[in-house]
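FYI - complex with FE2/S2 (inorganic) cluster, inputs then prediction.
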Amino acid sequence: MDEKANVKIFMFDPSKDKEPKYKTYEVEWKGLTVLQVLKHIYENQDAEIAFRCGCNGVGPARCGGCVVEVNGAPVLACQMLATKEMVIKPHRKFTIIKDLVVDFERERGTDA
Ligand code: FES
């Protein structure tokens, strides 16, 4: 019942880091969305991780702000249920601002 997920999160602040790294967290996951898992980590383990949570998936119109890649596939974090093993990265198409937060106005070059 208290089985925890291994969540590996991409961490990178282009303003000060030379290379991206990953941090791994053990968290509750059953029945939670990826966004709820990220919020749980932020509130209980690491307030340094950056991610977007715009509309929280509430309401008929989705903001799209929470888009990330989970295990290599682009997803809306507020819509996808968490799984026991997750590698969470920023969407590969856009320039990274910090960690999972990307600049939707700027597509990423070939440097990242
Ligand atoms: S937070 Fe708005 S679509 Fe996920």
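The longest helix spans residues 34-44. The chain has a mean pLDDT of 93.
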